[in-house]
Amino acid sequence: MSTVATRLPPQKPGLERVPPLESGDRLSREEFERRYEAMPENVRAELIEGIVYVSSPARFDYHAKPQLGIISWLGHYIAGTPGVEGGCAGTVRLDDINEPQPDGFLLILPRRGGQAGISDDNYVVGAPDFIAEVSASTASYDLHSKKEAYRRNQVREYLAWRVFDQALDWFALQGGNYEVLPPGADGIYRSRVFPGLWLDPQALLGGDLKRLIEILELGLASPEHAGFAERLAGSSSSS
After folding, report:
1. What would the pLDDT profile of 175-232 be if each residue is shown by its tens digit?
2. Contact predicate 160/169, CB 8 Å
3. Same domain? 38 vs 100
4. In whole angstroms, how far apart are CA 186 and each of 39, 92, 97, 172?
5. Which domain holds residue 5?
6. Are residues 29 and 110 in the same domain?
7. CB of 105 within 8 A of CB of 128?
8. Are residues 43 and 148 in the same domain?
9. Could you say which of 40, 57, 74 is where a domain stops?
10. How many domains would you assign to the chain?
11. Taking a C-beta distance cutoff of 8 angstroms, is the pair 87, 122 a contact?
């Protein structure tokens, strides 16, 4: 998620006057939400480790198109895996100083053993099991402060797409720390948390959605995915 430090448009009419959100502000999550509520509908912002990041317009090749690839991939997995849901750019209340809006995420429904819940006002609360972000490069806060917030809050897997570097980083939580999840000998990434979530990195980086889905379909047809789907169904029936 790219950011820019700039003064924002006027706030929504009819609300009490509150200070605008600006990149670099240091706020609690409660104050962040109060100010966010007063901003225009087209403003997107995140709170990461207590610091506000206001997004700049998303460029086609550097963000919009890559995000579509990720969402197409995740959406296809959700369609083939009852009990798993996800979203894009949705607010996630991680803790008192972190409220990101991940480019894409997956979560196991709470009634089926997932670690994140849905609040009464319809926000994700707690850590999604898998998060994906479109990042500019290793200099991005996605690979530093945000990665640390995800680790500390136990996001089990985190995929960062470094667009300028044309590279992917897939991190898996192990013993409270992130380790790099390597691809298999065939070059395909396989999620440890979501069996059957297979990724051809070259297809994603190259925008080859047909190949991307073909490899995912192989994962969805695997015995590991069948067993996972059976476990999810069993946890639902026993709840």
Report:
1. 999 999 999 999 999 999 999 999 999 999 999 999 999 999 999 999 999 999 999 9
2. yes
3. no
4. 48, 34, 40, 19
5. 1-57
6. no
7. yes
8. no
9. 57
10. 2
11. no
Per-residue tokens: 115: 């670690």
CB 201 within 8 A of CB 189: yes
Q: How confident is the model at residue 9 (pLDDT cuts 50, 70, 90)?
A: very low
Distance between CA atoms of 54 and 2, rounded to whole angstroms?
A: 8
137-184 pLDDT tens trace: 777 889 999 999 999 999 999 999 999 999 999 999 999 999 999 999
Complete DSSP assignment for 165-208? TTEEEEEEEETTEEEE----TTS-EE-SSSTT-EE-HHHHHTT-
Length of the chain: 239
**Same domain (yes/no): 173, 88:** yes
CATH assignment at residue 92: 3.90.1570.10
145-182 b/e (C-beta count within 10 Å ≥ 16 → b): bbbebbbebebbbbbbbbbeeeebbbbbbeeeebeebe
